Amino acid sequence: MNHQPEVLQRVLIIIPCYNEEAALPSLLQQLKQLTPPTGYSFQFAVINDGSVDATAQIATAAGVIILNLPINLGIGAAVQTGLLYAQQNHFSLAIQLDGDGQHPPTEIEQLLRYYEQTNASLVIGSRFSGIDSFRSTPGRRAGIGYLSWLAKLLTSQRIYDITSGFRLFDEKAIELGAISYPDEYPEPESIILFSRSGLEIGEVAVNMQARQGGRSSIRNFTSLYYCAKVTLAMLFTAIRKLN
Fold it and tell me: Where in the numbering of this chain does the Glycosyltransferase 2-like domain appear (predicted)?
C-alpha cells in the first residue's frame, strides 16, 4: 500500500539541542540544502534546551525556527516542545533528529518512504536493521538489546533500535506526544506509550554516523544503574493509567 501524498504535506523537522555548537552549523546547512521529496515541504525547528554555548546564536543566524527553553529540561521535554509546536501550527508530520550530527538529513527520505508504504504513526530510523551503519559501542549495544527485549515483553512488538532518536510522527503521534511524551527516558518509554495507545509503530533501516561534536546525555549507558532506572520507567508506563 502506497500513501504518497496527493496534496502538499508540511513536515516539521525537530532538532533538540543542548550545547551542540560544534555540529549544528553543518547539520543546519545540510538540512537547508535538502530537497524535499515530491508532495512534502520542510520547516526546521531547533529546540534550544537551555544551552550555555552558542547553539541559540547559530540557530538564529541560520534563520530556522528556534524555541528556547529557559533551563535545561532534558531530551523528553525538548521533543515534546517540538511536537506541541507542530500540533499548534497544524503540521502533517514531524521528524525528530539529533543536533549532534548522528542522523544524516539525507536519510529523512527513508522515513517518509516507509511511512508512505505502511501509514505507521511512529516510524523509527534503525541502525540495526540490516545495513552497514555506525552502531555505537558494544556495551551500549548490549543495553539496547536488553531494552528491546523488555519492550517486546511489554508490547509484543520487537523494536531493534529502541533508543533511536531519529523518528517520524504522524498527526496521531504528534497529538499524543504533545500531551504525554515521556520526559526522563523518552525513547524506550514512548514505545510503550504509543503501543498502549493503539498506534502502529514501524522501524526502517537508516545509515547513522558518530556524533560530530558535543557530549552524549547518556554517558553511563552501560551501567546497571541506568538500565535499572529505564526498566522501572518502562514498567511504570506499561501499567499506569493513560490520559
Answer: 13-172
